[in-house]
Amino acid sequence: MEECVILDLHSQKIGTSDALGNIPTFLSMIGRYFGPEFLLKLYLSGAVAGSVFYLVYHAFIVPSLQTQRRQVLSMHPSQTPGLGASGAVNAVMLLDIFLFPTKIIYFNFVIPVPAILLGIFIIGKDVVRILEGDTQVSGSAHLGGAAMAAIAWARVRRGRF
């Protein structure tokens, strides 16, 4: 029997509020397959990686954009949402997508989409946020979680989880 997930990406615009709306399904799937200890390690490492990516982005990349994008620099980095559940949520969601790319996810409760296409969309949207200088949602923190999911996926494939 094939499992499916319903994912509403409207909350992706809000930032870390997606932790409350979408993550329970993914948490239960990863926790069921690998156990609660693995899930906790993945979640916490995603949060740390998201924070590190956020800090590196604001320390090294934003200053180089001074002449190109004044609006990014008009806000102090502490006012930009970036630290929180974003990286952790992306780590868990994307690991599930990496492990089960053909699973059907109902995009906005209506459109059936293979998980891999949704994963590409999520990562692409975060890259676009960085390139456009989005100050409402931290794409760098999301990409930190995506990087942690990729590392976890590689370790699972090698049997070292």
Provide an overview of this structure:
- 63% of the residues lie in helices and 7% in strands.
- It has 161 residues and is mainly alpha-helical.
- Strands 1-2-3 form a three-stranded mixed β-sheet.
- Helix 3 (36-64) packs across helix 5.
- It is globular, with a radius of gyration of 16 Å.
- The model is unreliable at 1-21 (pLDDT under 50).
- Biggest sheet, open or closed, and with what strands and sense? 3 strands, mixed
Number of helices: 7
Distance between the termini: 26 Å
Mean pLDDT: 76
Helix content: 55-70%
Strand content: 5-15%
Shape: globular
Order of helices and strands: EHHHHHEEHH
Number of strands: 3
- In order across it, which strands form the biggest sheet? 1-2-3
Unreliable stretches: 1-21
Report Rg: 16 Å
The structure class reads: mainly alpha
